Every structure is written in structure tokens, then in C-alpha cells.
């Protein structure tokens, strides 16, 4: 009895010690109950989607139903418009973040339709999610349910953010591939620069110079011929009714679009000649930008020399070294010679050009064979293209079917027709199938809507090889040479 009494007597002291020493404990106590306050964020990617409003209504309705089922109190609505999810620099998005962080009413949940409605920025979205989590705010995706309070649920949500970014990149690559193809055809896809209008002429869309463009042409000529400053040119234009900022006019003077060439990120550092109307000549543009053709030493350095188009293309048969050209100034006669020191393999350009023209003549298509070859080319091309079109159409149908299944799956989950386990299982399955189909659709095809035009052009080209080479520029001659003889030709004197 005495021992039992002694033990019981120690319990109040232990509790007292715990209370006294509790101030030295580490870590913070987790809140027993989370707030039920939430906000709803909806978003679409384009103005057309926002004006249609179908997707925004669907998102909001699904989020509201989810909040009601979970007995959450909706403290505010954000978004409801079109904002890109590529970066997190969005007006409505930032307004929502400011609200949930500063609100007097503790906000515990941000409800979105899917994680890609919140963000597609991958790693940055994960960082933002973790920062919100430290303040007790979690993200809930109606169609991608995860328990973000657990380690496994947080990991799954991170994977969803990364997959959204990956899906966005796939879409971007497909879009940029189309933009690049259009640019290579000389078609400008973006907003047109100041001074141009898009018009339709005989059913064809064209980019032409407008009244503002005519004023800009004057500015280019002022700068090229009179050497005036950008500020003075801006002042003259303003007096004529065209007001531009200093930065804007500087950008215009440095834009090759005005002399007929296009620069775009999709072209990867290259310029392509466009189909649009030129505002000024290339010479005026270069003069405006102070680009000189003469080097500091006073002699002209010209890689594209029309007198020696076979340079580098010809190789010395003695040593395999590429041949270059030079001129005997007293006689004004051009020669080709081997670059290797001591090799005596050289020949006059006139003689070698005549030899190369004879080679082209021997390869020229006989016009009497052209009709038969034309028919065969069209048949072969049509067969190959039909197979490709059928495969593409089949893939597109499969993609539409998969996306339809994913939409129906989301609807069934939102209306509680299926469990969360089934929803997650089949969504992951459909997502994998969708990625595989998109990859296959991105492979280049061989389709053409102007088959007969291209075939006729190719045949005309093949019937006139020598004439095409003789009348071509340096660059055109080189392209023809390497088209017919990719490895070049060897010459022995």
C-alpha cells in the first residue's frame, strides 16, 4: 500500500515537471482542425474560350459542387478569364495569391478544376505549392484528387504539375513546327509590324504596305540619305501624324521585315525571305543600320564570287583537297587551283565551267520522257501520301476518342458515378495513351495540296539543268551542284 501510494503521489509532480519544462520542447504543434475556408480559381488559355464561356462555367460548377460535398465555405472566386499558365505572372492569379495569404479569414484550400488550371510551369509550380503549404494553404484539383497533407499525395501532385508542363511543351513543339513550316514558305504568322495591313486579293491573304508604311519609308530614306538621328526622324513623323516612341522607332529601323526578310525564334537564328510587300530595298536597310560592305583594310571580301561557283565543290583528285579560285589580274582570267602547297593541279575557270555544263547536259531529262515520268511520279506520290494520310487520320481519331474518354471520365467523377480509385487509375492510363499518340502525330508527313504544280516544276527543272545553272546566282548554282553531287566532284589536270 505504501509503495502504491508513493507512485500515485509522483504523478502530479510529473505533470508539473512536464508543464514547467514544456517551454524547452522543439517543433510546433499541428493544428487539430483545419479551416474549411476555400477560394475557387478558374482559367482558360485563350480569349475565344473566355468569350465562349463554356469551359469557365464547367470549371466553376464542378469546383462549387466539390466544395459543397466537402462542406467547405467559399470565400471568393478568382480567374474567370483567359490567362496563360506558362508563367505565374498573371493578374488574376496573383490577386488570388495575395488574397489567400493576407485574408483575415484563414484560407486553407485553393480549389481548381485540374492542376494545369493552376499552373503549367512545372518546377516553379511545385515551389509555389510548397510556399503556400507552409502557410497552411493546400491546392485541391477536382478532377485529380490527391491528399496533399500526406507525403505520397504531395508527390503525386508534384508529378501532375510536371506532367502538365510536359504536355504544354508537346503542344508548343507541335505549334512551333507549324509556324516554322509557314515561315519557310515565306508566310508571316505573328502580328504584322507597324506600317502593314493584311488584305485579301483574289481569295489570297497578303501583307501590304499601308499609309503608315509610306511614312516609315520616308523615315528610312531620311536616315539613309541624310544621316539624321532616330529622334529627329521620330519628330518628323510625329509632325506628319505618326507618333512613335523612341524605343519603337529604333526597333523598326532594325527589323529586316521592312526589306522583305523575316526573323523569328522558330527559325533558329536564320533569316527567310518573305512573301510580303517590301517597304524598302535591302541596300537602304543595310545603310540605315551602318552595315558596310568594305572591311577596314580597304579591299572587298566576298565569299559568294559569281566567277568561281565551283570552288570548294571541286576536289583535287591527286590529294583530295578542296579547290579554290583566284584571278590573274593582268589577263583578268579566273582559275581554280588546289589549296595544298606544292600541288600543281589548276585549271582555268572558263574551261572547267564548260566541262561542268556538258556534265549537266548529259544528265538533263529528255522532254519526250517527261509525260510518262510525270504520271509515274504522281501515282507513286499519291500512293505514299494516301498511306500517310490514312495513318494520320487514324491517329487523329484515336486521339479524339482518348480525349473524349478523359472528358467523360472527369464528368463521371464529378457527378460521383465512379470512385476516386477508378478515376485515378483510368486517367493515368488514358494520359499515357494520349502522349504516345501525340508523339506519333508530330512526326513529319509528306502531304501536299499542290502536287501537280510541284511535279511540273521538278520536271521543268530536270529538263533545263544546264540553263538553270548558267543563269543562276552563286547560291543557286551551289544548291544545284550539291543537289546532284552531294559529295562534290574530283578534278585531275
Topology, element by element:
Layout lengths: L1 H20 L15 E8 L2 H6 L1 H16 L3 E10 L8 H12 L6 E4 L2 H4 L4 H12 L3 E4 L9 H34 L11 E6 L2 E6 L1 H16 L3 H10 L6 H8 L7 E3 L7 E3 L8 H7 L25 E3 L6 E6 L4 E6 L7 E3 H15 L6 H45 L5 H22 L9 H13 L1 H7 L2 H11 L4 E3 L2
Parallel strand pairs: 1-2, 1-3, 3-4, 9-13
Antiparallel strand pairs: 5-6, 7-8, 10-11, 11-12
Low-confidence stretches: 4-8, 292-301
Proportion of helical residues: 40-55%
In spatial order, strands of the major sheet run: 2-1-3-4
- Count of helical stretches: 17
Q: Element order, helices and strands?
A: HEHHEHEHHEHEEHHHEEHEEEEHHHHHHE
- Strand content bin: 5-15%
The average pLDDT value, as a whole number, equals 80
Estimated structural class: alpha/beta
The count of β-strands is 13
Shape: elongated
Task: Provide the gyration radius in Å.
Answer: 35 Å
What's this, in brief?
The protein has 493 residues and is of the alpha/beta class. The chain has helices spanning 2-21, 47-52, 54-69, 91-102, 115-118, 123-134, 151-184, 211-226, 230-239, 246-253, 282-288, 349-363, 370-414, 420-441, 451-463, 465-471, 474-484, and strands spanning 37-44, 73-82, 109-112, 138-141, 196-201, 204-209, 261-263, 271-273, 314-316, 323-328, 333-338, 346-348, 489-491.
Give a verbal description of the structure.
The protein has 493 residues and is an alpha/beta fold. The protein is built from 17 helices and 13 strands. It has helices at 2-21, 47-52, 54-69, 91-102, 115-118, 123-134, 151-184, 211-226, 230-239, 246-253, 282-288, 349-363, 370-414, 420-441, 451-463, 465-471, 474-484, and strands at 37-44, 73-82, 109-112, 138-141, 196-201, 204-209, 261-263, 271-273, 314-316, 323-328, 333-338, 346-348, 489-491. A four-stranded parallel beta sheet has the order 2-1-3-4, sandwiched between helices. A three-stranded antiparallel beta sheet has the order 10-11-12. The chain is elongated, with a radius of gyration of 35 Å. 20% of the residues are buried.
